[in-house]
Amino acid sequence: MKKFRLAIIFTLLLTFGLVSFANAAVVNKQDNNVQWLGHSATLITTEKGLDVFIDPWITDNPKCPVTKENINPDLILVTHNHFDHMGTDVPYFVEKNPNCIVVVHNDVVSALNEMGITEKNIVSYGMGLNYGGQAELEGIKITMVQAIHNPSAAGYIIELEDGTTIYHAGDTGIFAGMELLGNLYDIDLALLPTGSTFVMNPFQAAHSLKLLKPKKVIPIHYGTFEVLVQDATEFVKLSKKIAPNVKIEVLKPGGSLRL
């Protein structure tokens, strides 16, 4: 009976224009959007419209379907300073958006300085982060975690404004600490390299899902060069057997996933 009375009141409000579906739609939250731009490059657009760009290799990236002019990041996260992750476009993005903050490992700060990026645009007053360090920028919590690759390689746990948690592994092999990450964080989406040679192969990447326990996964870092695994077929096949509860989202470069 109470629900019936509420329905009548709401109908009357609609009738006299005191409330409308149009106005109600304005306050509905927007989805978070994750766009894979080939290799490791990933653009996250949050529900509040902030752009977080991870591994901003655009120019000379053979798999990237957009140009740097199409992107205007508020935050840039670099997993390490190899050419296929840091790229050469960071100065362009900082000039385009003078308030852009770049998050890097402390040992990579000097490489940014050589590109002309000063402490104003580098996290932690120009000092960078190290493993376990966290920065809260524009309401987004960014935690640097280890990656098994070169000495200053990192991954990131990214907690968006609404609590959605994304793990971008950067370049890494499988490591036991992934289980700890899976216990510490309720990971909604993991982006994992699957291309072998320099990173996890499909077998290791599939087993890492058992450790991380994400709800969804996007395979990345494959198919860019001949030396890498060329597609996600084996990863998908193995993951369905090893971690059947994880939803696998295979994207084409430029493809998006809404969270």
From TrEMBL:
Molecular function, one GO term: hydrolase activity
Keyword Translocase part of the UniProt annotation: no
UniProt keyword list: Hydrolase, Signal
InterPro entries for this protein: Metallo-B-lactamas, RibonucZ/Hydroxyglut_hydro, UPF0173_UPF0282_UlaG_hydrolase
SUPFAM superfamilies per record: Metallo-hydrolase/oxidoreductase
Signal sequence residues: 1-24
Residue stretches making up the Metallo-beta-lactamase domain: 38-221
Pfam families: Lactamase_B_2
Protein name listed in UniProt: Metal-dependent hydrolase
